[in-house]
Automatic annotation (TrEMBL):
Keywords: Nucleus, Protein transport, Ribosome biogenesis, Transport. Belongs to the SDA1 family. GO terms for cellular component: nucleolus. It is found in: Nucleus, Nucleolus. The lineage of its organism: Eukaryota, Viridiplantae, Streptophyta, Embryophyta, Tracheophyta. Residues 1-24, 489-657, 773-836 are annotated as: Disordered. This is Protein SDA1. It comes from Digitaria exilis. Required for 60S pre-ribosomal subunits export to the cytoplasm. Residues 489-498, 644-657 have a biased composition (Basic and acidic residues). The keyword Flavoprotein does not apply. Residues 789-834 form the SDA1 C-terminal domain.
């Protein structure tokens, strides 16, 4: 926008200056003008003309190169600053008279910003900010001026301009995003960022990073502009951009985030813990006091561990995960360009390591193929290399399943040969094994059987860090490829025939994750209802053989042909079973069961037309087959009863045949129930395939609840609160490729459990920390002497009066000892006497 400079000096302006030169109380006049704008229009015009003449006089003084203190220059600057602030305050009440005020103040700052006194410059900037806040002038028109004001060298003005830009853009996007205005402002800042001058680019980059961190400009355009700053000619801008990309996740989240994002974060930070009422009741009400305390403590540990796991999963692989590198438009070009600059740059070692980490992070996030990157890393893979764990963490992050194994194999062999050998230090061996495990987790094809068996032998090491690293490698390959391990190391894998995917193989998801839990829940509910109905049916069926006496008369009216057929069938079956004996008993039993099933199927098909009709044909057939079997059973009962009456057989024989018949009937009934359940399961599966392809919101909520219940049950089983749950299969859960690409490899995790030798200062600090809660050393005897309480237990026991019998026994014992002593002393030889 073109700036209008102050008008030339005229006699009218001079007269206005002399009239308005009289001292005015500007705050009082400002309050009166706000209350009655129309009554003070003349005073406003006089003050406005006085402001214009003051601007003209100041420009004349600046042209004559006079100092601000000489000839009243300081007074002119102070008066000009006060007038500018006064007019800016009353500008909303006089929009026509003060329409050119923003251009006058902006033109003065644009042309003479560096030559203005600091106080006047600050007052003019404050007046311009006030006009922008009152919406008298747009932020787009003054954006370039505020960007220029940050590089003139005045710290107070730079702080004012920076805070004004940030707060204005935040306020503009507080209720809704104004994309048109945001795009105009972004274009201005991007132009300053691409400038070769370091100071301008630094201020623009600082504004972009601050707005991005506050989630005001959280779009791909801003993210790509920040990433493009990595290629700025100035090394300071490049380092600042790389540090922002690496440390973005550690930046503190500001309190002024949007309501939607804050609600999502709260929902993610409040995990869903579903424990059954029975487990909570057992922990609080069952058992002794001590056992209940233990159960309650275990329950609290379960809840804490589940909350920690759910928060970790949400942070690493949830929807709240964010990194600026994920929104790169040309990730391959960005990685190649930054890698070429890394190869040519002569920066210090720390800067090159930061560039290396950004490249590795980009390769891992976007599954890029940059084959020259791995030989470059191979040159620095040495145990004595400075910050070698950071370098190895970058190498791990750059590995994914889309990289050809041949490209990474030299680097992999270099790591194994340099770190894992018998003459290496335990710290190096532990780090090497951990790196091998992380690389094999991302690229399982790198490992062969001989190398794995050699590395696994380190599980017998006496160093804790080495043995833990080797056992973690065993745990990994139990999951992804147990066949590479020897038999004693395989344990009990979940899938003994598991194999890693071939290079380029992709697993396509055919269903919604967690939908099988919903199917299992539905099937369990159906089985529960089936069991209830089966229990009801079985009660009726059990009552069938013990029929009332009135039914025996009807059963006697059966035909003689049926009796003969039944007798022949039973005789043939008995002869067949006697002839086969022990050689073919098992085969005959299998054949008989198959024949029984076939006969039941035939009978169910033949009698399907005579029973009641239902809505589903499968249920009709099953019910009809059950009814048919009951009819056959009743016929056979009649036959056996008539035979028993006619032949006059004993009651034992009748009881045996009835028991055999009841067993056969129960076996047939059980097979029919199994068929019914199978048909119901198939029908449910068909219906779920046809109508369950689109899940509703309630289904997804149910899946989430079932997952939480399963995790709770597993956690309770691992802590020993419930039994009957297999916890071995859940000891290690193999993450997916996307989860591994989003996971950040911490260099400190690669050297976990490594005992680092402390320096003398650290040891002294630890010793002094242990003495804080301890008093001054005092001798034990002094403590006893200063004791002010009663006697000790030992002293009381010594002074305790003994019983009378013990006292007499002690006295008798003392007399005997004295007598023996006198007797021995009388027999002693005391030498020749000197006299006789």
């Amino acid at each position: 926008m073109p700036r209008k400079h102050a008008p030339a000096f005229t006699p009218d302006a001079a007269s206005a200056s002399s009239v308005a030169g009289q001292p005015h109380n500007l705050p009082v006049l400002q309050a009166k003008m706000k209350r009655d704008p129309e009554g003070y229009e003349e005073e406003l015009r006089q003050l406005h003309r006085h402001f214009e003449s003051s601007v003209f006089l100041f420009q004349q003084q600046a042209a004559l190169a006079t100092t601000s203190s000489s000839a009243g220059g300081g007074e002119v600057a102070k008066e000009l600053g006060d007038l500018a602030l006064f007019l800016a305050h009353v500008a909303p009440f006089y929009p026509d008279d003060l329409a050119d005020l923003p251009d006058q103040i902006g033109g003065l700052l644009d042309t003479n910003a560096r030559g203005l006194p600091p106080g006047l410059r600050e007052h003019l900037v404050q007046a311009l900010i006030l006009l922008v806040n009152r919406k008298i002038v747009d932020l787009e028109d003054t954006m370039e001026l505020f960007m220029e004001l940050q590089v003139i060298g005045d710290r107070a003005v730079k702080k004012l301009a920076f805070s004004h830009i940030i707060h204005s853009i935040r306020r503009m996007n507080q209720k809704h995003k104004n994309d048109t205005r945001n795009r105009k402002l972004q274009n201005i800042i991007f132009k300053f960022l691409q400038a070769e001058e370091e100071s301008r680019a630094k201020r623009a980059f600082t504004i972009l990073c601050d707005l991005h961190r506050r989630r005001v400009w959280f779009d791909e355009r801003t993210t790509n502009a920040i990433c493009e700053a990595c290629f700025h000619p100035s090394s300071r801008i490049m380092i600042a951009a790389i540090q922002f990309l690496l440390g973005y996740e550690n930046a503190e989240q500001q309190e002024d985030e949007s309501d939607a994002s804050s609600s999502e974060d709260e929902a993610d930070k409040n995990p869903q813990i579903l424990l059954s009422k029975q487990d909570v009741y057992k922990a609080n009400h069952k058992g002794t006091v001590a056992s209940k305390k233990k159960k309650q403590a275990k329950l609290q540990r379960v809840i804490r561990s589940m909350k920690r796991q759910q928060r970790k999963s949400v942070e690493e692989s949830g929807s709240s995960y964010y990194s600026p590198l994920t929104y790169l438009k040309d990730a391959q070009g960005f990685a190649e360009k930054l890698f070429s600059r890394l190869q040519k740059c002569n920066e210090r070692f720390e800067v090159r390591m930061m560039m290396l980490k950004v490249i590795a992070r980009t390769i891992g996030l976007h599954h890029l193929v940059l084959l020259n990157f791995y030989p470059y890393l191979q040159r620095y893979v040495q145990p004595h290399q400075r910050d070698v764990t950071t370098l190895l963490a970058a190498a791990v992050q750059a590995c994914h399943d889309m990289v050809p194994p041949d490209a990474v194999e030299p680097l992999f062999k270099q790591i194994v040969n340099q770190f894992v050998h018998d003459r290496s230090r335990p710290e190096s061996i532990a780090v090497g094994l951990n790196v091998v495990r992380e690389i094999c987790m991302r690229m399982p094809l790198m490992m062969n059987e001989d190398l794995l068996q050699d590395l696994v032998l380190y599980k017998k090491s006496h160093e804790k860090a080495v043995s833990i690293a080797a056992r973690s490698l065993i745990t990994l390959f139990r999951e992804i490829c147990p066949s590479l391990l020897v038999k004693k190391d395989r344990g009990r894998p979940v899938d003994p025939k598991a194999r890693p995917k071939a290079f380029g193989e992709v697993t396509v998801a055919s269903d919604v994750p967690g939908a099988e839990l919903l199917d299992e829940d539905m099937s369990s509910e159906e089985e529960g209802s089936d069991e209830e109905s089966d229990a009801f049916d079985s009660d009726n069926e059990i009552a069938l053989p013990s029929a009332p006496p009135g039914t025996e008369e009807n059963m006697e009216g059966s035909s003689e042909a049926n009796k003969c057929d039944a007798n022949e069938d039973t005789n043939e079956e008995d002869e067949a079973s006697d002839e086969d004996g022990a050689d073919e008993g098992q085969d005959n039993s299998d054949n008989d069961s198959e024949e029984v099933d076939e006969e039941l199927d035939d009978d169910s098909d033949m009698d399907a037309d005579t029973d009641m009709s239902d809505e589903d044909s499968d249920d009709d057939e099953l019910k009809e087959s059950i009814n048919g079997s009951e009819d056959e059973g009743s016929d056979q009962d009649e036959d056996t009863d008539e035979e028993d009456k006619s032949k006059g057989s004993d009651s034992k024989v009748q009881k045996r045949k009835l028991n055999d018949y009841i067993g056969e009937l129960n076996a047939a009934d059980a097979s029919l129930r199994a068929l019914k359940r199978l048909a119901g399961a198939k029908k449910a599966q068909v219906s779920s395939d046809e109508t369950g392809k689109i899940l509703s919101d309630e289904d997804f909520k149910r899946i989430k609840e079932l997952k939480a219940k399963k995790e709770a049950k597993l956690a309770l089983a691992q802590h020993g609160l419930i039994k009957g749950v297999d916890t071995k299969s859940a000891t290690f859960k193999m993450p997916s490729s996307d989860q591994l690409s989003r996971k950040r490899v911490d260099p400190l995790e690669l050297e976990a459990h490594v005992r680092r030798k402390m320096s003398k200062e650290e040891r002294l600090a630890m010793v002094k920390a242990g003495r804080e809660d301890r008093g001054q050393y005092v001798a034990r005897a002094a403590v006893k002497q200063k004791k002010t309480g009663g006697l000790s237990n030992k002293q009381k026991q010594h002074k305790k009066r003994m019983p009378l019998a013990a006292t007499r026994a002690k006295a008798a014992r003392s007399r005997q000892e004295k007598k023996q002593q006198r007797k021995r002393s009388g027999n002693q030889f005391r030498g020749r006497k000197a006299w006789k």
